Amino acid sequence: MTDTDGRLPAERADRTAERRPRRGEAGFTLLELLVVMTILGLLAAVAGVVAINQFTKAQTDAAALQLNSISAGLDLFYLDHGRYPSEDEGLKALVEAPADSDAWRGPYLKDEKAITDPWKRVFLYRYPGQHGKYDLYSLGADNAEGGDDDNSDVTSW
To answer: What pLDDT, on the 0 to 100 scale, is given for residue 135?
Structure first.
């Protein structure tokens, strides 16, 4: 005798038994889940360290690019005035006209953010410079002279 789907009742019972897992064989054990979670945690930790290292390197690279931009602004200021800004005028002279300047054709940089390093400090400027016509630099992440790797100074010389 056949069922409504055309199979014998014993045949259908065999297929149903194949689909159902036996007791103790279904799912994952707690130990298997803990191993997988531990592996995922280790991978996340390694990825986090790599991401942080890339971020700090990116800040140093961004500071170097900003130095190039500020140097170009200083050169434009020099072309208009025949001199670089004094230390008193500072880099702000690239964004706002100095009080006694009639030849100012700026702004030579977009805004004050352009003279701020990635660590939210204004780039340091010395004129006349000890290493060239002017010295332009950032003390890096540690805000102290010298340093290694991420804490190294970023300079125009």
So the answer is: 96
- The structure's pTM equals 0.67
Residue 18 maps to a domain: no
The 10s digit of each residue's pLDDT in 20-78 is 656 656 788 999 999 999 999 999 988 888 887 777 788 889 999 999 999 999 999 99
Separation between Cα atoms, residue 96 and residue 104, nearest integer Å: 9
Is residue 100 a contact partner of residue 89, using CB atoms and an 8 Å limit?
Answer: no
**SS3 (DSSP) at 124:** strand
DSSP state of 134: S
Is position 48 within any domain?
no
**Residues 31, 36, 37, 38, Cα dihedral to 10°:** 90
Structure tokens at 31: 């130990």
Cα diameter, the chain: 109
- Distances in Å between the Cα of 141 and the Cα atoms of 99, 113, 146 are 33, 17, 11
List CB contacts of 87: < 8 A, sequence separation 6 or more.
125, 126, 127
Residue 115 lies in a domain: yes
